[in-house]
Amino acid sequence: MRRAVSPGTGRRYPLTMICAVLHVPRSTAYLAMAPAPIPAGLPAKRGPKTAYSDAEVVEAIRAVLAATPFHGEGYRKVRARLAHRGLAIGGKRVLRLMREHHLLAPRRLGPPNGDPAHAGTITTTRPDEMWGTDATRFYTEQDGWCWFFGAIDHCVDELVGWHTPPRSAIAGPRWSRSARACATCSVASRKTSPAGSGSAATGGRSTSPMRGSMR
Prior knowledge:
This protein is an alpha+beta fold. It has 7 helices and 3 strands; from the N terminus they run H-H-H-H-H-E-E-E-H-H. Strand 1 and strand 2 form a beta hairpin. Helix 3 packs across helix 4 and helix 4 crosses helix 5. It is elongated.
């Protein structure tokens, strides 16, 4: 009907006139004329297609990991070795595939040297049971910067001995020697030895934020 031509005007009848004469809503006419919906396909990644599929890249990654003498490798090294084998793969793609297939190198969570907050208990019930060492730096006009090592009783929170080495005695491994000298002076001054030292009670770490430890 819409394609019919009016003999008076020589033009096709408009859709509004046809719907008014037939008492049909125009929305129904538009729905009938609409093309059939195209079935939606599988979602695909936009952009240019890569030369290698994910399965091929994963197989190449497994080959790289099988050839390494270590327990695991990071994605950067794997990407570099893939490039040496002629596979130019982006680092983010290598990281994504290794993460999805659980191929990343295992890593230890948390601080590398243990809990820095010292979550354990360092409170004692009597004096001379556990000592800890601490150190601080101060300035003098005669000697310049000097170091002070002190041994602290964890029960009464008081110094039981101290050691002030010269500036040249602090460099390198001599730091631990100064801490041990402080502990030796403390034991000599107290005429006793504590039942537990700071390193034995706290896993070899100082019970204070400083680097000194009593051994």
